Protein backbone atom coordinates (compact mmCIF):
# COMPACT_ATOMS: atom_id res chain seq x y z
CA UNK A 1 0.00 0.00 0.00
CA UNK A 2 1.08 3.54 -0.63
CA UNK A 3 1.77 5.85 2.28
CA UNK A 4 3.45 9.11 3.14
CA UNK A 5 5.10 10.18 6.37
CA UNK A 6 5.36 13.83 7.25
CA UNK A 7 8.26 14.06 9.63
CA UNK A 8 7.21 17.19 11.51
CA UNK A 9 3.79 17.97 12.92
CA UNK A 10 4.74 21.63 13.42
CA UNK A 11 7.38 23.86 11.84
CA UNK A 12 8.03 27.41 13.01
CA UNK A 13 9.92 29.97 10.95
CA UNK A 14 10.41 33.71 10.90
CA UNK A 15 9.14 35.77 8.02
CA UNK A 16 11.78 36.01 5.30
CA UNK A 17 13.60 32.79 6.29
CA UNK A 18 13.56 29.52 4.30
CA UNK A 19 10.85 26.90 4.72
CA UNK A 20 11.46 23.14 4.67
CA UNK A 21 8.59 20.68 5.16
CA UNK A 22 9.68 17.07 5.03
CA UNK A 23 7.87 14.13 3.48
CA UNK A 24 8.91 10.54 2.89
CA UNK A 25 6.85 8.17 0.82
CA UNK A 26 6.44 4.43 0.54
CA UNK A 27 5.33 2.98 -2.75
CA UNK A 28 5.86 -0.24 -4.62
CA UNK A 29 5.21 1.60 -7.87
CA UNK A 30 6.46 4.81 -9.40
CA UNK A 31 4.32 7.21 -7.42
CA UNK A 32 2.53 10.43 -8.18
CA UNK A 33 3.08 12.86 -5.33
CA UNK A 34 1.40 16.09 -4.36
CA UNK A 35 1.51 18.86 -1.81
CA UNK A 36 -1.77 20.44 -0.74
CA UNK A 37 -2.23 23.46 1.53
CA UNK A 38 -5.16 24.11 3.87
CA UNK A 39 -5.67 27.56 5.31
CA UNK A 40 -7.79 27.83 8.47
CA UNK A 41 -11.44 26.97 7.87
CA UNK A 42 -10.83 26.54 4.17
CA UNK A 43 -10.70 23.63 1.76
CA UNK A 44 -7.51 22.16 0.39
CA UNK A 45 -5.64 23.71 -2.52
CA UNK A 46 -3.08 22.00 -4.73
CA UNK A 47 0.40 23.53 -4.41
CA UNK A 48 2.28 21.28 -6.81
CA UNK A 49 2.45 17.74 -8.16
CA UNK A 50 5.03 15.26 -9.39
CA UNK A 51 3.94 12.76 -12.02
CA UNK A 52 7.23 11.23 -13.27
CA UNK A 53 8.37 14.20 -15.33
CA UNK A 54 11.00 16.63 -13.99
CA UNK A 55 12.15 15.74 -10.50
CA UNK A 56 12.19 19.39 -9.39
CA UNK A 57 8.64 20.62 -9.38
CA UNK A 58 7.66 24.26 -9.08
CA UNK A 59 4.30 25.20 -7.62
CA UNK A 60 2.30 28.22 -6.72
CA UNK A 61 3.33 30.99 -4.31
CA UNK A 62 7.05 30.28 -4.72
CA UNK A 63 7.00 26.73 -3.37
CA UNK A 64 8.89 23.87 -4.96
CA UNK A 65 9.60 20.23 -4.18
CA UNK A 66 12.21 17.75 -5.32
CA UNK A 67 11.47 14.09 -5.92
CA UNK A 68 14.40 11.95 -4.73
CA UNK A 69 13.87 8.30 -5.47
CA UNK A 70 17.05 7.17 -3.71
CA UNK A 71 15.85 8.81 -0.50
CA UNK A 72 12.11 8.19 -1.07
CA UNK A 73 11.57 11.84 -0.23
CA UNK A 74 9.49 14.70 -1.59
CA UNK A 75 10.34 17.68 0.61
CA UNK A 76 8.62 21.03 0.14
CA UNK A 77 10.72 24.20 0.21
CA UNK A 78 10.38 27.94 -0.18
CA UNK A 79 13.30 30.37 -0.08
CA UNK A 80 11.55 33.07 1.95
CA UNK A 81 8.49 32.62 4.13
CA UNK A 82 5.62 35.07 4.11
CA UNK A 83 3.05 35.56 6.83
CA UNK A 84 0.35 34.34 4.44
CA UNK A 85 2.12 30.95 4.21
CA UNK A 86 0.93 30.04 7.70
CA UNK A 87 -1.31 27.02 7.12
CA UNK A 88 -1.42 23.24 7.24
CA UNK A 89 0.43 21.39 4.51
CA UNK A 90 -0.32 17.85 3.38
CA UNK A 91 1.94 15.52 1.45
CA UNK A 92 -0.15 13.16 -0.68
CA UNK A 93 0.48 10.06 -2.77
CA UNK A 94 -1.87 8.62 -5.33
CA UNK A 95 -2.80 4.96 -5.19
CA UNK A 96 -1.79 3.30 -8.47
CA UNK A 97 -4.66 0.85 -8.05
CA UNK A 98 -6.87 3.82 -8.67
CA UNK A 99 -5.18 7.07 -9.53
CA UNK A 100 -8.19 8.94 -8.31
CA UNK A 101 -7.53 7.74 -4.77
CA UNK A 102 -5.31 10.07 -2.80
CA UNK A 103 -3.60 8.99 0.43
CA UNK A 104 -2.88 11.94 2.71
CA UNK A 105 -0.11 12.42 5.23
CA UNK A 106 -0.94 13.61 8.73
CA UNK A 107 -0.09 17.21 7.91
CA UNK A 108 2.49 19.79 9.00
CA UNK A 109 1.36 23.03 10.53
CA UNK A 110 3.57 25.91 9.42
CA UNK A 111 3.78 28.84 11.81
CA UNK A 112 5.31 32.10 10.56
CA UNK A 113 6.33 34.77 13.03
CA UNK A 114 7.05 38.41 12.19
CA UNK B 1 -17.09 28.99 -11.87
CA UNK B 2 -17.85 29.25 -8.15
CA UNK B 3 -15.84 26.18 -7.27
CA UNK B 4 -17.12 23.21 -5.33
CA UNK B 5 -20.05 24.23 -3.16
CA UNK B 6 -20.93 22.46 0.07
CA UNK B 7 -23.84 22.99 2.42
CA UNK B 8 -24.33 23.47 5.22
CA UNK B 9 -20.97 24.86 6.35
CA UNK B 10 -21.71 23.93 9.94
CA UNK B 11 -24.10 21.37 11.33
CA UNK B 12 -24.81 20.62 14.98
CA UNK B 13 -27.12 17.73 15.72
CA UNK B 14 -27.99 15.31 18.47
CA UNK B 15 -27.02 11.69 18.53
CA UNK B 16 -29.51 9.53 16.67
CA UNK B 17 -30.60 12.21 14.24
CA UNK B 18 -30.24 11.95 10.47
CA UNK B 19 -27.70 14.26 8.88
CA UNK B 20 -27.50 15.12 5.18
CA UNK B 21 -24.51 16.89 3.69
CA UNK B 22 -24.71 18.35 0.20
CA UNK B 23 -22.23 19.01 -2.56
CA UNK B 24 -22.32 20.69 -5.94
CA UNK B 25 -19.21 19.86 -8.01
CA UNK B 26 -17.60 22.13 -10.55
CA UNK B 27 -19.54 22.06 -13.81
CA UNK B 28 -18.04 19.64 -16.29
CA UNK B 29 -16.17 17.58 -13.72
CA UNK B 30 -17.05 13.92 -13.92
CA UNK B 31 -15.38 12.68 -10.73
CA UNK B 32 -16.70 13.49 -7.27
CA UNK B 33 -15.09 12.54 -3.96
CA UNK B 34 -16.20 12.63 -0.33
CA UNK B 35 -13.51 12.91 2.38
CA UNK B 36 -13.61 13.05 6.15
CA UNK B 37 -11.05 14.89 8.29
CA UNK B 38 -10.56 14.17 11.98
CA UNK B 39 -7.75 14.83 14.40
CA UNK B 40 -7.31 11.13 15.07
CA UNK B 41 -7.41 9.77 11.52
CA UNK B 42 -6.51 12.75 9.37
CA UNK B 43 -8.01 12.96 5.87
CA UNK B 44 -9.71 9.83 4.61
CA UNK B 45 -11.43 9.11 1.32
CA UNK B 46 -14.93 7.81 1.98
CA UNK B 47 -16.30 7.25 -1.52
CA UNK B 48 -15.93 8.50 -5.06
CA UNK B 49 -18.16 8.66 -8.11
CA UNK B 50 -17.47 8.70 -11.83
CA UNK B 51 -20.23 9.97 -14.09
CA UNK B 52 -22.66 9.74 -11.14
CA UNK B 53 -21.85 6.07 -10.49
CA UNK B 54 -20.20 5.02 -7.20
CA UNK B 55 -16.83 3.46 -8.03
CA UNK B 56 -15.24 2.78 -4.67
CA UNK B 57 -17.01 3.00 -1.31
CA UNK B 58 -14.46 1.00 0.65
CA UNK B 59 -13.77 4.00 2.86
CA UNK B 60 -17.34 4.34 4.09
CA UNK B 61 -17.08 3.50 7.79
CA UNK B 62 -20.30 1.55 8.22
CA UNK B 63 -23.84 1.08 7.02
CA UNK B 64 -24.98 4.24 8.78
CA UNK B 65 -23.24 6.16 6.00
CA UNK B 66 -24.65 6.39 2.49
CA UNK B 67 -23.91 8.60 -0.52
CA UNK B 68 -25.79 9.32 -3.68
CA UNK B 69 -25.25 11.28 -6.83
CA UNK B 70 -28.59 11.59 -8.63
CA UNK B 71 -27.18 13.86 -11.33
CA UNK B 72 -23.95 15.45 -12.46
CA UNK B 73 -24.43 18.57 -10.37
CA UNK B 74 -25.47 17.22 -6.99
CA UNK B 75 -24.37 14.68 -4.41
CA UNK B 76 -25.38 13.90 -0.85
CA UNK B 77 -23.71 12.16 2.05
CA UNK B 78 -26.15 10.91 4.64
CA UNK B 79 -25.54 9.62 8.15
CA UNK B 80 -28.40 7.82 9.84
CA UNK B 81 -28.36 7.55 12.80
CA UNK B 82 -25.56 9.94 13.69
CA UNK B 83 -23.16 9.28 16.57
CA UNK B 84 -20.72 11.57 18.42
CA UNK B 85 -17.76 9.81 16.77
CA UNK B 86 -19.04 11.05 13.40
CA UNK B 87 -18.03 14.60 14.41
CA UNK B 88 -15.55 15.73 11.77
CA UNK B 89 -15.09 18.03 8.80
CA UNK B 90 -16.46 16.49 5.62
CA UNK B 91 -15.00 17.64 2.32
CA UNK B 92 -16.33 17.19 -1.16
CA UNK B 93 -13.95 17.41 -4.11
CA UNK B 94 -14.30 17.10 -7.87
CA UNK B 95 -11.99 16.60 -10.82
CA UNK B 96 -12.28 16.84 -14.58
CA UNK B 97 -10.92 13.38 -15.26
CA UNK B 98 -9.41 10.56 -13.28
CA UNK B 99 -5.71 10.03 -12.92
CA UNK B 100 -2.90 11.88 -11.25
CA UNK B 101 -2.70 14.54 -13.97
CA UNK B 102 -6.07 15.95 -13.00
CA UNK B 103 -6.28 18.11 -9.90
CA UNK B 104 -8.96 17.50 -7.32
CA UNK B 105 -10.70 20.74 -6.34
CA UNK B 106 -11.94 20.80 -2.77
CA UNK B 107 -14.94 22.53 -1.32
CA UNK B 108 -14.75 24.51 1.94
CA UNK B 109 -16.05 21.58 3.97
CA UNK B 110 -18.92 20.95 6.36
CA UNK B 111 -18.05 20.90 10.04
CA UNK B 112 -20.33 18.34 11.70
CA UNK B 113 -20.77 18.19 15.46
CA UNK B 114 -22.86 15.39 16.94
CA UNK B 115 -23.70 15.84 20.62
Short overview:
The complex is a heterodimer of chains A (114) and B (115). With 114 residues, chain A is mostly beta strands.
Question: Mind explaining what this structure looks like?
Answer:
The complex is a heterodimer of chains A (114) and B (115). With 114 residues, chain A is mostly beta strands. Chain A is 0% helix and 57% strand. In chain A, strand 10 and strand 11 form a beta hairpin. With 115 residues, chain B is an all-beta fold. The mean pLDDT of chain B is 93. Chains A and B meet through strand 6 and strand 11 of A and strand 5 and strand 9 of B.
- Write down the overall geometry of chain A: globular
Main beta-sheet annotation of chain B: 7 strands, mixed
Number of beta strands of chain A: 12
Question: Portion of residues in helices of chain B?
Answer: under 10%
The number of distinct helices of chain A, counting runs of at least 4 residues, comes to 0
Count of β-strands of chain B: 11
Of all chain pairs, the largest interface belongs to: A-B, 20 and 24 residues
- Listing every helix as H and every strand as E from the N terminus to the C terminus, the arrangement of chain B reads EEEEEEEEEEE
Strand-helix topology:
The complex is a heterodimer of chains A (114) and B (115).
Chain A: E1 3-6, E2 10-14, E3 19-21, E4 23-26, E5 33-38, E6 44-50, E7 56-58, E8 64-68, E9 73-78, E10 87-95, E11 98-104, E12 108-113
Parallel strand pairs in A: 2-12
Antiparallel strand pairs in A: 1-4, 3-9, 5-6, 5-10, 7-8, 8-9, 10-11, 10-12
Chain B: E1 5-7, E2 10-13, E3 19-24, E4 31-38, E5 42-50, E6 53-56, E7 65-71, E8 74-79, E9 88-95, E10 105-106, E11 110-114
Parallel strand pairs in B: 2-11
Antiparallel strand pairs in B: 1-3, 3-8, 4-5, 4-9, 5-6, 7-8, 9-10, 9-11
